[in-house]
Amino acid sequence: MKGFIKEFKAFAIKGNVIDLAVAVVIGAAFGKIVSSLVANIITPLIGVLLGGRDVSGMMYVLGNAEITYGVFLQSIIDFFVVALFIFIAVKAINRAQDAFDGEEEETAEAKPPEPTEDIKLLREIRDSLKK
Q: Which residue in 42, 64, 97, 120 is deepest, having the highest Cβ count within 10 Å?
C-alpha cells in the first residue's frame, strides 16, 4: 500500500498532471465564455438574418413527430464558433511564443564581446612563441 501511495504522489506532483489540471479548468471557463457568446450574440444575429426567427426553435412537424433541426443547426453553429475561437487563441499563443523564442535566439546568437587589449597582447605573444 505504501508503494502505491508513493507512486501516486510521484504521478500527481509531476508537472504534466498539474498543467493538465490547469488546462481543464481554463478550458471549462473558456467554454462558458464561448457558449455565452454564441447564445447571447451570435444566435440572435443569425435570427435577425433569418427574419427574426430563433434558430434553435426551427422544426418540422411530420405527423405526430417534431423534427427539431434548429437544435441541430445551433449545435453546428456552436461547434464552429468554438473551433474558430480555439484556432484564434492557439494562433495568438504561437505568435507570442515565436516572438519570445526569436528574442532568445537573437541574444544567443549575439557576437561575443571583443577581447580586451591585454587578451590581444597575450594572444600575440603566444602566437609568436609558437613560431
A: 42
Nearest to 85 by CA among 56, 42, 131: 42
Q: Which residues pair with 62 in a beta bridge?
A: 65
Q: Which three cell numbers stand for residue 67?
A: 423534427
Question: What is 2-111's CATH number, 3.90.550.10, 1.10.1200.120, 3.30.70.260, 2.30.110.20?
Answer: 1.10.1200.120
d(CA 95, CA 99): 6
Model confidence pTM above 0.90: no
- pLDDT-flagged residues of the chain (< 70): 15, 53-54, 103-110
How far, in Å, CA of 51 to CA of 37, rounded? 20
